[in-house]
Amino acid sequence: MYRARAARAGPEPGSPGRFGILSTGQLRDLLQDEPKLDRIVRLSRKFQGLQLEREACLASNYALAKENLALRPRLEMGRAALAIKYQELREVAESCADKLQRLEESMHRWSPHCALGWLQAELEEAEQEAEEQMEQLLLGEQSLEAFLPAFQRGRALAHLRRTQAEKLQELLRRRERSVQPAAPTAAADPPKPFPAAAVLPTGAARGPPAVPRSLPPLDSRPVPPLKGSPGCPLGPAPLLSPRPSQPEPPHR
C-alpha cells in the first residue's frame, strides 16, 4: 500500500527522474524560472541534509567559541606567567655567563703556575728588603734595636715563601709525571748463545761433589798471641794458606 502511495506521489522534487520526464521546452522554461529552480533545490533531500550539517557545524563552532572565550582569561594569565619565566630565565642565563667568566678568570689567576710565580716574586721582594735593611744597618741609618725584629720577620717570611715555592714545584713535577704517558719499554735483547767451551758434552764424566768440611766455631779457635814491643807497631799477620781438599772415593 505504501509503495502504491509512493508511486502515486511521483518522484521527489529535484531528483533526476523528475527532470527526465520533462520535455525540452519544459526544461528550457524551468531554467528561465529562477524562483522555481530555487524552490526545487531547497526541497531536495541532499540540500536539506547539507543544511542540517551546516546548522550542526554552526552550533558546534558556537559552543567551541564560548568555551574558548571562557578560557581566554586563563590563557592571558598563562602568557603573562610565561613571559615572566622567560625574563627570569634570561636573567639567570646572564648571571650564569657572568659567574662562569669570573670563575675562568679566577682559575687562570689562581692556577698553580700563577701561584708559583707569585711566591717567587714575594721571595725576591723579601730578600731584597732584607738586603736593604742590612745596607741601612751598615751605613748607620738604622739602629740595631730596630733592625733585629724587622730583619727577623723578613727572613722568616722569605724562608716561608721559599718552602712554599719548593713544595709547589714538587707538586707540579709530580702532576706532570702522572699526566705524561708511560714511555714504551725497550724490547728485550735476544738471548745470546753460550760459547762452545762453556757447554759440557753429554757423556762427560763428572767427579763426585766436594763435601764441605765442618769447621769449629769461631769462639773455640785459639787466638795466637801477637808479638811486638809496646813501642813498635805490630807487623802484618801471616795469612794461612787453605789446605787442598782431598777428593773422597765414590760411593759404591
UniProtKB/TrEMBL annotation:
Q: Which Pfam families match?
A: Mod_r (PF07200)
Coiled-coil region list: 86-143
Highest taxon of source: Eukaryota
Q: Does the keyword Transport apply?
A: yes
> Which compartments does it reside in?
Late endosome membrane
Chain intervals for the UniProt region annotation (Disordered) = 175-252
Chain ranges of the VPS37 C-terminal domain: 93-182
The record's annotation in InterPro entries points to: Mod_r
* Gene Ontology biological process: protein targeting to membrane; protein targeting to vacuole; ubiquitin-dependent protein catabolic process via the multivesicular body sorting pathway
**Which stretches are tagged as biased composition: Pro residues?**
222-252
Give the main localization category: membrane
Question: Topology relative to the membrane, per the entry?
Answer: Peripheral membrane protein
Q: Which UniProt keywords apply?
A: Coiled coil, Endosome, Protein transport, Transport
GO cellular component assignments? ESCRT I complex; late endosome membrane
Functional description taken from the UniProt entry? Component of the ESCRT-I complex, a regulator of vesicular trafficking process. Required for the sorting of endocytic ubiquitinated cargos into multivesicular bodies. May be involved in cell growth and differentiation.
Tell me its family.
Belongs to the VPS37 family.
* The name this protein goes by in its record: Vacuolar protein sorting-associated protein 37D
Q: Which organism is it from?
A: Ursus maritimus
